[in-house]
Design brief:
It is a single chain. The chain has helices at about 25-35, 50, 70-80, 100-115, 135-150, 170-180, 200-210, 230-240, 255-265, 270-280, 290-295, 305-315, 335, 360-370, 380-395, 465-495; strands spanning about 15-20, 40-45, 60-65, 85, 120-125, 155-160, 165, 185, 195, 200, 220-225, 230, 250, 350-355, 415, 420-425, 430-435, 440-450, 455-465, 500-505. Residues about 1-5 and about 340-345 have low confidence and may be disordered. Helix 5 links the parallel strand 5 and strand 6 (about 155-160). It has a seven-stranded parallel beta sheet with strand order 3-2-1-4-5-6-11, sandwiched between helices. By secondary structure, the chain is α/β, with parallel strands linked by helices. The longest helix has 29 residues, at about 465-495.
C-alpha cells in the first residue's frame, strides 16, 4: 500500500537539482535531459575529473561537485541550495566486498544530509521485486535503501524497475554477448522467470517528469514496459533483431547463480563480481504490481523489441552516451602517478621511448586517442588479446570490455584492460591498468611540439612493483616491451600517415 502524503497547494517545480551518480549509466544520461528542460543541475560524482570530461560539463546551467556518499560532510556541501536530489548511486562495483553494507551507510548519510540541507524531496531509482526469503541480495539491498531513505523527514519518490534495456547497460551487454557468442546455450532455470523490462529512455522520462508531477511526491511506483516475458524470449528477440541464426537454448536445473555468474564472466565483458548479483536477481519474478505512474506521467512505452532495436542502432552508430563501465571512481592522481612521495622508497620501474614524427600534434592525436577497442593497439594485437584472456581467467576485467566510443575518450572511460586516468587533447593520454598484476601500472602517451612542424611522440610505462612477485613480473615482461612498445609507436605514426624522422629510441 502506498504511503499517503499531503501535497502542498503551492507545489512548484524545483529550480535547482542535485544528481548523485552523475557519471553512472543512468545519471550520465539524465543530466543533459534536465539541462535541456531548463533546470540548474549540480552534477555530483566521487571523481571530479570524470565529470569535467562529460559533453555537458561546460553547460551554463551545470555545476560540477565532488561528493562521496560514504561521507556525510561532502554530501551536505553538495546538497546546500538544491531543492531536489536524485539518488542514482549503487555500490555494486568490482572490488566492493560488501555492497549491501556500503549502500546502507550511503543511504543513511543521504537521509541526514538532506534533512540538514533542507532538501524538499529525494527521487530514487530502485529495483523491482517483492520481499521474500529467496529474494536476491542485490534486490534486497535495493529495497533496503528505499526503506532507509523513507525513514527521513524528506519525502522520497521511489521508482522500482526491472531490467533496463539500453545500449551500454550491464543487463543489455550480458544479453548481447550471450546471444551473439553462443549459438547453443545451456542455461539456468531463471531464463523462464517472468520479467517486465523497460527501455532506458522510458526510465529517464519518468525520472525527469517526477519533478513536475506533485502526485509523485513521497510515493513508490513500479515502472516497466508494456510486456511481461521471460529472459528466454528476450534472447530470441535479440537474435532476430541482430539478424543472427536461430539460437538453441536448453534450460537445465543444475545451473546455480554462482555457476551462471562464472559463465557470464567468461563469455561477456561483465565481471563475476557484478554478474553474480545480477544473475541471482534473475531468479526472482520482476513484474509491476501496479501501473499508477502510467496515468500520472503518460508516455509511449517501448516494447522489448523496439528497445533492443534502438540499442543496436546506438551501438552501430557508435552513439552510446553512457556505459556500465563508467561506474566507479578514479583514484587521485597523486596516489598513482610516479614522482609522488607515495611512490618513493619502493620498487618503481620505468620504460620510456620516443619517436620524432614529421607532423603536428593535431595530426597525430586522433590516432593516439583511437587506441584499443576495434582499432587495436597498433602492434601485436594477438598478444594483447592473449593478455586479456589470461586476465579474465584469473578474475580480471579482461580485454573484451573494449571502449564506449571508437574515437572519443574521457577520464574514467574503460579501455580494454585499462582505464583513462587523465587526458588532455593533443597533449597526453594516461592509462591506469586494471588487469590482475602484482603492482600498479600506468601507460602514458605524450605529444610535444618539436622544431619545423615536428612532434615528439613519447610513450612511458611505469610499474610500481608489489613485493618479489612484482619484481619478477616486471622482468618477465621486459623482453616483450622491446618490440611491442616500439611497434606501437611506429603503428601510431603509420596510421597518421606521417613519417618517422628518428627513433624509436629507448631512454630508460
Amino acid at each position: 500500500m502506498k504511503r499517503s502524503y499531503i501535497i502542498s497547494a503551492d507545489f512548484k517545480k524545483p529550480s535547482a537539482v542535485l544528481v548523485l551518480g552523475a557519471t553512472g549509466y543512468v545519471g550520465g544520461r539524465l543530466v543533459p535531459l534536465l539541462l535541456e528542460a531548463g533546470y540548474h543541475v549540480r552534477a555530483a560524482s566521487r571523481s571530479i575529473r570524470k565529470l569535467q570530461d562529460r559533453p555537458w560539463a561546460r553547460h551554463a546551467n551545470v555545476e560540477l561537485v565532488a561528493a562521496d556518499v560514504s561521507g556525510e560532510s561532502s554530501l551536505l556541501d553538495a546538497m546546500k541550495g538544491v531543492e531536489a536530489v536524485y539518488y542514482l548511486v549503487h555500490s555494486m562495483l568490482p572490488g566492493q566486498k560488501d555492497f549491501a553494507k556500503a549502500d546502507r551507510i550511503a543511504a543513511r548519510n543521504v537521509v541526514e544530509a538532506a534533512k540538514t540541507a533542507d532538501v524538499k524531496r529525494i527521487i530514487y531509482l530502485g529495483g523491482l521485486g517483492e520481499d521474500s526469503p529467496d529474494l536476491s541480495k542485490h534486490l534486497q539491498s535495493r529495497a533496503e535503501v528505499a526503506r532507509i531513505l523513507k525513514t527521513g523527514s524528506v519525502p522520497v519518490t521511489v521508482l522500482r524497475a526491472a531490467m533496463i534495456i539500453g545500449s551500454g547497460s550491464a543487463s543489455f551487454e550480458i544479453l548481447r554477448y550471450l546471444v551473439e557468442r553462443l549459438p547453443v546455450m545451456i542455461t539456468p532455470k531463471w531464463v523462464s522467470t517472468p520479467s517486465q523490462p523497460i527501455a532506458i529512455r522510458n526510465v529517464l522520462y519518468y525520472l525527469l517528469k517526477c519533478l513536475e508531477t506533485p502526485e509523485t511526491v513521497g510515493q513508490t511506483f513500479d515502472i516497466g514496459g508494456p510486456e511481461v516475458l521471460p529472459y528466454l524470449d528476450l534472447m530470441k528477440i535479440y537474435a532476430e533483431e541482430a539478424r543472427l541464426p536461430e539460437r538453441w537454448i536448453i534450460p537445465v536445473p543444475v545451473f546455480t547463480p554462482r555457476l551462471s555468474s562464472y559463465w557470464i564472466h567468461l563469455v561477456t565483458p561483465v565481471p563475476s563480481s557484478l554478474a553474480r548479483p545480477l544473475a541471482e536477481g534473475l531468479k526472482n519474478p520482476a513484474v509491476c504490481l501496479e501501473d499508477q505512474i502510467e496515468t500520472l506521467i503518460p508516455q509511449t512505452l517501448l516494447t522489448c523489441r523496439e528497445a533492443i532495436r534502438l540499442a543496436l542502432v546506438r551501438l552501430h552508430e557508435h552513439a552510446v552516451e553512457t556505459h556500465w563501465t563508467d561506474a566507479g571512481s578514479l583514484p587521485p592522481v597523486e596516489k598513482v602517478y610516479p614522482g609522488d612521495p607515495n611512490w618513493s622508497g619502493g620498487s618503481v620501474y620505468q620504460d620510456r621511448r620516443q619517436v620524432v614524427v614529421d607532423g603536428l600534434p593535431e595530426a597525430i592525436w586522433p590516432h593516439v586517442v583511437r587506441i584499443g577497442g576495434e582499432t587495436g593497439w597498433y602492434y601485436a594485437n594477438p598478444l594483447w588479446r592473449l593478455r586479456g584472456i589470461l586476465d579474465r581467467l584469473f578474475g580480471g576485467v579482461g580485454h573484451r570490455r573494449g571502449r564506449r566510443s571508437p574515437d572519443v575518450l574521457m577520464a574514467g572511460d574503460a579501455l580494454d584492460v585499462w582505464r583513462v586516468l587523465e587526458i588532455a587533447p593533443n597533449r597526453y593520454l594516461k592509462l591506469l591498468a586494471e588487469m590482475k598484476m602484482p603492482g600498479t601500472a600506468i601507460l602514458a602517451f605524450e605529444l610535444t611540439p618539436g622544431e619545423n612542424g615536428t612532434t615528439i611522440l613519447r610513450q612511458t610505462a611505469w610499474f610500481a612493483a608489489r613485493g618479489l612477485s612484482g619484481f619478477l613480473y616486471w622482468y618477465a615482461v621486459m623482453p616483450f616491451h622491446n618490440f611491442i612498445f616500439d611497434g606501437m609507436l611506429k603503428g601510431i605514426a603509420r596510421a597518421s600517415s606521417k613519417m618517422i624522422l628518428s627513433g624509436p629510441s629507448h631512454s630508460g
